[in-house]
Predict the 3D structure of the following.
Amino acid sequence: MKFATKAIHAGQEADPTTGAVMTPIYQTSTYQQASPGEHKGYEYSRGTNPTRKALEDCLAALENGRFGLAFASGMAATDTVLRLLSPGDEVITGDDLYGGSYRIFTKVYAQYGIKFVFVNTSDPKEVEKAVTKQTKLIWVETPTNPTLKLADITAIGNIAKAHAILYVVDNTFASPYLQNPLDLGADIVMHSATKYLNGHSDVVMGALVLNDESLYKKLWFYYNAVGGTPGPQDAFLALRGLKTLHVRMKAHCENARLIAAFLKDHPKVETIYWPGFSDHPGHELAKKQMRDFGGMISIVLKDADLQETFRIASGFKVFTLAESLGGVESLINHPASMTHGSIPKETREKVGVVDNLLRLSVGIEDVEDLIDDLKAALA
Ligand SMILES: *Cc1c(COP(=O)(O)O)cnc(C)c1O
């Protein structure tokens, strides 16, 4: 089946007891057993729930994977992968990461004796150079947040394979509509389903998708043993969100294309990051491994100090100043103080997260209204 058909149908059948076309919200913590251990595949909802199962199967189908796991947040999904590691292990990851990933690496897992090595993942040679005998995991985000750098998923996958290192790609920014890392050599795809997958800014959720059954069993063990799993209401909402992922992504990409063109020559814009421009360093790679360029754009404001940047960021009427991304509504974010506030100033500035950087999550409103809003706020 193709993408849109899977988005609407995968993992979902009419409910066997009533014929309900939409997967019911199985609001139950436990399930009747006929005799001890004799049940219908569901025992206790921390581990298994039918609404969540439908979502997980749909997610797996969209990422061309065999197994899906849904979590109470993207960070819970990340945490579950990191539990596969032991003290002394090393992780190679990007120097331009989502702030929360940086925080869990450096503030949570580093204290358990796991070493994190941050490199420029746009250059596979940098990844290769960092490999040691202790390297157990490569964690890549592409496009990166917020400066939209590209990493070559296949090239890094070849390095991981050659050294038998587990390879995870955070696919939050692209969504499975634009990019399928498992097809390009990743072992696990990670998502903050809070963003494009759910798409309506009303759920916090995470996901992992993978093909290897023994790895799935290991991850399922931590998923159930630690318990960072989502409730059925949220699973239902995310499942509903997925049904329009393809329609939303097309609209996000189209609006972003027009907004990027508008901002490119704007006198108030010093630098613009959007992989659709032919002079973006990741442009050719984006054309190769993605189906379109996505709905995220970052800009550095010309001659703007922190105060001026805050003034501009607060002056929008259609864009909402808020953290997060990937919803139907347009958001504007100031990474240095908001999403990336947990990264030290020196570290973030090295990778371009300067005080006058703003990140746009372009929504699917009428693009003329979005451009008018940008015009007024930048004036
Ligand atoms: C938001 C985000 C996360 C974390 O996900 P939560 O759902 O907020 O826990 C991880 N990676 C990226 C790229 C994100 O944007």
